[in-house]
Amino acid sequence: MHVFEGSLSFMAFPVVAFTRKDGQKLSMRRLAVLALILASLSTTTSLLNLQSWHSGGITILWPSNGFLAGALLCVRRRHWPAYLAVGFLVDLGINLSLATPSWVAVYLALCNMVEALLAGTLLYRTIAPNPDLTQRKQLTRFLLYGVVVAPAVASLMATLVFGRQGRHIMSHIHTFQWWFTADALGMAVMIPLYLSFARRKLFLGRSWWEIVGVFALLCGSAVAVFWQTQAPLLFALLLGLLMIGVRLGLAGSALGLLVVSIIGGFFTTAGRGPLALMQNVSLTTRELTLQAFIAFSMLMLYILEVLRAEGYRLQEGLRVSEARFRLLAVSSRDAILLVNLEAKVMYASPAVTEMLGWETEQTLGLSYREAFHPEDITVAESVFKDTREGRHPGMFQFRCRKKDGSYLWMEASLRLYRDSSANDATGFVVVMRDISLRKAAEDELQRAFRMVEALASVDGLTGIANRRRFDEVLQSEWRRAQRDRTPCSVLLMDLDHFKNYNDIYGHIPGDRCLRQMAEAATQVSRRPADLVARYGGEEFAVILPDTSCEGAIAIAEEVRSAVEQLQVPHSGNPHGIVTVSIGCATQVPPVDGDLSELLKAADSALYVAKSLGRNRVDAALPVLLP
């Protein structure tokens, strides 16, 4: 492969990856074509280096090992032995044809295969199955394993064969250096170029006219720079390499480095170019300087390409993210708003137009204080405040003004969003949905519930409150009276001799009589807080909140008189008409009092009224009075 103080030894080019990835067996014809291409490539590279070797120089760039390593990365590992075998045989044949000793030819061919195998193995584990050297992590591993470790191991192995000849230690160091630099640059140039070719990602999809044009310009510039010997214009080639890198990507950069290496190596070996200005130095020193320039250019181009690709991927990610967000926003039936910390709309999805009639542009800068129903603004302020302070209030309901001035019931959820760099709160994401149909259904359900509840609280015969409703209201009024320290009065009423009435006149007239009793009591108890209820069969009760004993007795007397004035005939009653007996009780409830005592007192008063001849009102004992 390389020259050692005038002696020639060669390494063959690696095999092109023609293997299909479907796992089929490689044909002999395919391997024969592979060997022919490999031999042609190896011979061409050797001829380009002959001038340097005969002039006592070194190999400037040896791309064959990098080419073979790139081929290994693009095929299944089961095919690697065939590739390595073809590469070994071709390399061995080239070395033997150049009169290299047989054992040296075998050993050097083995070193080259070890280098390709080691690079392929290390890189296969780290960048396969989707190699992309424009990713920072993959490029770092490629430079470490492919450009440093594998060439270093192969170069160390190659120097051992010359250690047997008793060379000085400095000679071994120089030999290692010459092998390593040429192989490392070959790896750095050929692996990216081959991977780009294998993945069909050559030159970023540019037209062939552009590709030919930029490379023609680079070739012309390289010839001009390396032909002249008047000015140190070597770094002027960086402009051309940068242009190719920007226009054609990583593959263009790799191919551009290869072109500059070939042209620069040819003219530098011939004693021309800016490196000829270096006086009193050997050809080897000039060629090492050229290698340093190529290595520097390679690092700069590859790093810039990684940064450019990362920027492109970031822009593409942002574009895809924005497109995905817009797709979701446009397709969603819910309205999505971006609101700043002042609660003013910065973005509104198209669903706003469908819901509220406002065009999205008309909502920009609008605040909830302008759009919400006045009764809902306080709730909204509380929700925005809680969200900003890190609490999650969940969903809240409100009425939002439509363009026609009417209001629509909506439900919304809030999330605080922050600046990705400073992590400072910058606004809110509001997702709103139309719940008018649900709200109407809930209202209808509430009406139905209230109707059922009312039916469950109404006596079916008389239409007044039943016993269940009486107990609920009495409990509520009792607690209120305890809290306010006000009197609470109860009347218990019983139609006199009503069983006899049913026996004499029948149940239908009896039911009519009960309804008349309920109507008379209702007409007397006219305050909204008063409640007349059917307490039992022929028993009725009246709750009189905030009513003194005297007031309760007066109302009871009015009820008794109203029933008497109905003049409903009742032959089973000594009075000849339907009458009613009423017991009255009043109490200011103590803090730990029991309302059952009030009912017992009213019932006792009713018993007294009935025992004293009926058709009268009696009040409870004075101990219950306030």
Task: Walk me through the structure.
By secondary structure, the protein is of the alpha+beta class. It has four domains: 1-195, no CATH class; 201-331, no CATH class; 333-441, Beta-Lactamase, CATH 3.30.450.20; 458-624, Alpha-Beta Plaits (2-Layer Sandwich). The chain contains 19 helices and twelve strands. The chain has helices at 28-54, 64-73, 80-97, 102-127, 136-163, 169-198, 208-227, 237-269, 283-331, 351-356, 360-363, 368-371, 377-388, 436-457, 467-484, 498-505, 507-524, 549-565, 595-611, and strands at residues 3-4, 7-8, 335-340, 345-348, 395-401, 407-418, 425-434, 488-495, 531-534, 539-545, 580-587, 617-619. It has a five-stranded antiparallel β-sheet, sandwiched between helices. The protein has a five-stranded mixed β-sheet with strand order 9-10-8-11-12, sandwiched between helices. Strands 1-2 form a two-stranded antiparallel sheet. Strand 3 (335-340) and strand 4 form a beta hairpin. Helix 4 packs antiparallel against helix 5 and helix 6 (169-198) crosses helix 8 (237-269). The radius of gyration is 51 Å and the shape is rod-shaped. The N and C termini lie far apart (121 Å). Mean pLDDT is 85; it is low at 3-24.
